[in-house]
Design brief:
four-stranded antiparallel sheet, 20 helices, TIM Barrel, alpha/beta, about 500 residues
Length: about 500
């Protein structure tokens, strides 16, 4: 990666009149903003369909996209909706995304659009999409069974569905034909709109950095489709679950609850599922960030049913064998999220991979972080992606309120802050000045927003993933300031 810069802004956070950001006009406007600010990258979070807790990192599928991102106005342009179908819906938006309202009100509208698509009978492109995406069958089955069973968790399903009994599945498809068709068609509409947006971004010189969560949800079609990939029992209950140990930010650690991979099985299959997954992601993004990369070196396991992550243990991961397979079959457009506890083995694996790692300025100035010294600007490296903060961090203006007075004073002195300066912009300047090949600014920090705009606070549920930008917030002034710094520090 050459010396360039970009902005982290998830699709859900784009301005919208319809409850959540989408692949519509505001996405195209944001691409124009990036292009005119002479940026190179648009980084987003996983496009995955969200489940419990609304997290894109706890998806019902490693392959399927989030139907909420399908733009309703564009469906109207395609003749699949009428304006009266959606324009007067109350999305119960009160400054934050209301996922409950989206769940109850968005899907009936999308079902209407999909029904009209089927009635039109023009299936040529859809059939091509179906052939190219073999995961679609199990995804649609999983979602259909979910509906039939009133959204019961996978572990509570009857045996005939867990084991995909042919007679039970055939009967299900007949009884719930409309539902089964909907879940297939809605993914086609998602993919169609996304690739049109990506094509536009690429035409403007903007490359998309996407995200690959290391783990999948225990209640997912991935476990349903092939349980042998995971350490689960005959009832599909996880034997162990994922998380990370206690640190300065989470005294009890983080209990994610994802099933652990059966890495011996993955080795026996030459990591076929991982290759398939990453090839898919590389087809929809220009670069793929592997979240929690350190879990490939060693991963933290916790007993199923534990209430905290305190008593877990580290287990050796697939390491260089998986990285070698990715390199041979996928390519090199990979970024490693190497934050958190980094021992010599992780550092060695990162060096072996040659993937760029990450550096976070907030960690560098925060005395609560044991790895802070690695993130102080003078210790950052060329082959890194530098951030002021990521989606898991506090916004930089919120962060100033959390720092100890001593840490804040040191930070201000280091970055050259003086009374009257815009603190967020002085930090962005420091970011752009780093030796790192790539610098990524979180959108909230461009806007100088406080803690109320934080995207995610790890180990909490209830207020995450809800921030949405206001209409017209990316002003000419912000564009010009970002463009100026981009040129000053040789990133244009």
């Amino acid at each position: 990666m050459d010396r360039k810069s970009g902005v982290l802004m998830h699709i859900s956070s784009l301005p919208s009149k319809y409850g959540i950001g989408s692949f519509g006009d505001e996405a195209y406007k944001f691409v124009d903003f990036l292009s005119e600010a002479h940026q190179t990258y648009w980084q987003i979070l996983p496009l995955s369909q969200t489940g419990y807790g609304d997290s894109p990192y706890q998806s019902v599928s490693a392959f399927a996209g989030n139907p909420y991102f399908i733009d309703l106005e564009y469906l109207e342009k395609d003749g699949l909706l009428k304006k009266e179908d959606y324009v007067d819906v109350d999305w119960e938006f009160n400054g934050r995304i209301n996922y409950g309202a989206l769940y109850n009100k968005r899907y009936p509208i999308l079902r209407l659009a999909c029904r009209r698509f089927i009635e039109k009978g023009d299936f040529k492109d859809f059939e091509k999409f179906e052939k190219e995406n073999e995961w679609l069958e199990d995804y649609a089955l999983f979602q259909t069974i979910k509906e039939k069973l009133n959204y019961a968790s996978l572990i509570d399903w009857p045996k005939e569905y867990k084991e995909k009994d042919p007679e039970a599945i055939s009967s299900l498809k007949k009884e719930y034909e409309d539902t089964y068709d909907f879940w297939r068609v809605v993914q086609y509409l998602f993919t169609k709109q996304w690739f049109e947006l990506k094509k536009y971004a690429n035409s403007k010189g903007i490359k998309i950095i996407g995200d690959c969560p290391l783990y999948v949800s225990s209640d997912s079609c991935d476990v349903f489709s092939d349980p042998s990939l995971f350490l689960v029992d005959e009832e599909l209950v996880p034997k162990k679950v994922a998380g990370c140990p206690p640190d300065g930010f989470a005294a009890d650690g983080q209990l994610w609850g994802n099933p652990i991979y059966d890495w011996d099985h993955h080795l026996d299959t030459d990591y076929a599922w991982w290759i398939k997954r990453l090839k898919h992601l590389c087809s929809i993004y220009d670069y793929v960030r592997i979240d929690h990369f350190r879990g490939l070196s060693a991963y933290y396991t916790i007993d199923y049913g534990a209430t905290t992550a305190k008593d877990g243990k580290w287990v050796r991961g697939p390491g260089k064998a998986l990285v070698k397979a990715i390199r041979e079959h996928v390519g090199s457009n990979i970024i490693a999220e190497d934050l958190g506890y980094m021992d010599d083995d992780v550092k060695d694996l990162l060096a072996y991979s040659t993937y760029p790692g990450m550096g976070v300025l907030e960690f560098g100035f925060d005395s609560r972080d044991s790895n802070g010294n690695d993130n102080i600007p003078y210790n950052l490296k060329k082959n890194q992606i530098a951030y002021v903060g990521t989606h898991d961090n506090q916004t930089v203006m919120g962060w100033t309120k959390e720092l100890s007075p001593e840490a804040l004073d040191f930070c201000k002195e280091y970055i050259g802050y003086r009374d009257g300066d815009d603190f967020n912009w002085v930090m962005i300047r420091q970011l752009m000045a780093t030796v790192c090949d790539t610098a990524i600014v979180q959108a909230q920090d461009l806007l100088g927003l406080d803690e109320n705009a934080r995207m995610n606070a790890p180990s909490t549920v209830g207020r995450n993933w809800q921030w949405m930008a206001e209409d017209g917030c990316f002003t000419e002034n912000i564009k010009e300031r970002l463009r100026e710094l981009t040129h000053v520090y040789g990133r244009a």
